[in-house]
Amino acid sequence: EELEVKIASLTIKKTAKEHELETELEESSKALVELKAANEKLESEIAVATVSKSTQDELNEVDISIACKSTQDELESTIDESIKKIEDLEMALTSNEMANYELEIKN
C-alpha cells in the first residue's frame, strides 16, 4: 500500500513535470515563431533600405551628371561668346589698320 502511494505520488509528479515541460515547449515554440517573424521583418526592412540607398546613390549620380552638363554648357557658351568677341576685335583691328594705312597713303 505504501509503495502504491509512492508510485501514485511519483506518477502525479511525473505528469505535472511533463505538463510543465509541454507548457515550456509551447512557449518556446511561440517565442521562436515570433523571433522568426521579427527576423523576416528586419530582413525586409534591410532590403528596402538597401534599395532606397541604391536609388539615392543613382539619384545623386544623376544630379552630379546634370550639374556637370549644365556647367559644361555654360562654359561652352562663355567660350563661344569669347571667340565671337575676339573675332569682332580682330575685325575692328583690321579695319583700323586699313584706315591707318589709307591715312598714311593720303599723307
Q: Unreliable runs, pLDDT <50, ≥5 residues?
A: none
Question: Would you tell me the structural class of the helices and strands?
Answer: mainly alpha
Please tally the helical runs, counting DSSP H or I stretches of 4 or more residues: 1
Mind telling me the C-alpha Rg? 46 Å
First-to-last CA distance: 156 Å
The helix/strand order is H
Nearest-integer average pLDDT: 91
Strand percentage lies at: under 5%
From the spread of the alpha carbons, the general shape counts as rod-shaped
Number of strands: 0
Helix content: over 70%
The biggest beta sheet reads:
none
Short description:
By secondary structure, the protein is mainly alpha-helical. The protein has 1 helix and no strands.
Walk me through the structure:
- With 107 residues, the protein is an all-alpha fold.
- The protein is rod-shaped.
- It has one helix at residues 2-106.
- 98% of the residues lie in helices and 0% in strands.
- The model has no long low-confidence stretch (mean pLDDT 91).
SSE map:
Blueprint: H1 2-106
